[in-house]
Amino acid sequence: MRRSASTAEAPRASGRRRQAGVTLVELMVAIAVALIMSLSILGVLVFSASSSKNATTLGTLNNNIRGVLTLMTRDANSAGFMLGAAQAQCALTLMHDSSLTTQPPNIYPVWGQGQTHGGNLPFTNGTTSYPPSGWSNKTQVLLFAASPSVPQYTTTGASPNVLLPSPIATAAYGSSWSSTMTSGTLQLTTTSGLSAGDVAMLQVPMSGALVCMRIPVSTISGTKVTSTPGSKLMPANAYSDFATQITGNSTSYGTLSVGQLQHARLLDLGQSTSSMQIVEYWIDNSNGYPVLMRSVFSALTDSLIGTDALAPGVVSLQALFGTIPQGTAPGTAIPTFKAWSDVNPATDQVVSVALAVVTRTLYDDSSYTAPSKITVPQPASGLTAPDAFTDYSVSTAEKHRHFQVNTIVIALRDATWE
């Protein structure tokens, strides 16, 4: 009987042994499933983190560029105000300063020039580090000449009376005098407010446009003002050298003469380095990645006031200039957009500027591949090269970067206020 009992209990004991654990195969399957689930969750987390990083980066870029465009709009709105909103802007401003080897011979309320590898920046003696050598994409240096703020207006005792910004002390029309153009002497109706050492802007009407010359006030004798020829701001042959500059720039202005100087107006800019400024936007690559920079120079002394880094990742800055014929009232003609190389300040009046800023992220996103070209929208239909924005070609090194394009058209207030 005991044998029968032992035999009867054996299956139950065996069953209990099977229920006490899992087989090695079952364990391996469970580990594999858990590993697959963990990798899936990790992939989701990595993708989410990458997407969040890219979204944050693009958001930061967008905020930076919006701030840049606001600053550019402010500078554009001030362009030309160094002579007052009630005054016609200078179609051409001649400058002489032997200390600047790369200074342009003239300035405008707003203008631009191509930025090339190793090229010179205006108002500095240095060279650019951007764009890279062999670069095919277009980028420019953009410049504004303006008073840093809109001044109040006062009436002077000049004859005839004119409205002038209060920081500008005097305006005086010349009368006949016997000095030659090489003497640097002007005979004025009044020198009230002028002081030796001041910098002045001489406005000369020539062929329907104003040609301006930055001159130093070296000495004052009665109502005569002399700008010493060969001094820091005055050429060796005085107004004769300025006349050569005018003719070399454009024959549309005609030839400068003593008779025209007799009908010129002198605006005293004083001695403050901040009364008239040149603002320059450009791209720097000296730290290994492109950054949009803003430099401010004194237009009285050509000295650098300061430089700020505005936005990393800007790879192209382009500008087109909305023009109407000189003498046409703004608002009565549709502007024609031109590249600066096609703008003739003697015949074209710039009333607006269109800007395009192309920006990219600083780091790769391996999950993203950029298109071969980034389209830059045009400010008007029918524009063709070179008077059009250029699409951005993505290089091999940038194919995993995100890009964005911002464009804006800014009306120049000085032109619309005339």
Describe, in plain words, how this protein is organized in 3D.
This protein is α+β, with helices and mostly antiparallel strands and 418 residues long. The protein has two domains: 55-148 and 274-417, no CATH class; 153-270, no CATH class. The chain is built from five helices and 22 strands. The protein has helices at 2-19, 24-78, 239-249, 258-261, 413-417, and strands spanning 92-94, 106-107, 110-114, 140-146, 153-155, 163-165, 171-173, 185-187, 199-206, 209-216, 219-221, 224-226, 265-270, 277-284, 291-298, 304-312, 314-325, 336-338, 348-360, 373-374, 392-393, 403-411. The protein has a six-stranded mixed β-sheet, covered by helices on one side. The chain has a five-stranded antiparallel β-sheet with strand order 3-4-14-15-16, covered by helices on one side. A hairpin with a 7-residue loop joins strand 5 (153-155) and strand 6. The longest helix has 55 residues, at 24-78.
Largest sheet: 6 strands, mixed
Name the helicity range. 10-25%
Based on secondary structure, the structural category is: alpha+beta
Q: How much is the radius of gyration in Å?
A: 34 Å
Compressed to H and E, one letter per element, the order equals HHEEEEEEEEEEEEHHEEEEEEEEEEH
Strand fraction equals: 25-35%
Strand order across the largest sheet: 2-1-10-9-13-7
Q: What is the residue-mean pLDDT, rounded to a whole number?
A: 79
**Count of DSSP-assigned helices:** 5
Number of domains: 2
Oligomeric category? single chain
Dominant shape: elongated
Instruction: Let me know the number of strands.
Output: 22
Q: Low-confidence parts lasting 5 or more residues at pLDDT below 50?
A: 1-10, 82-86, 150-171
First and last CA, distance? 126 Å
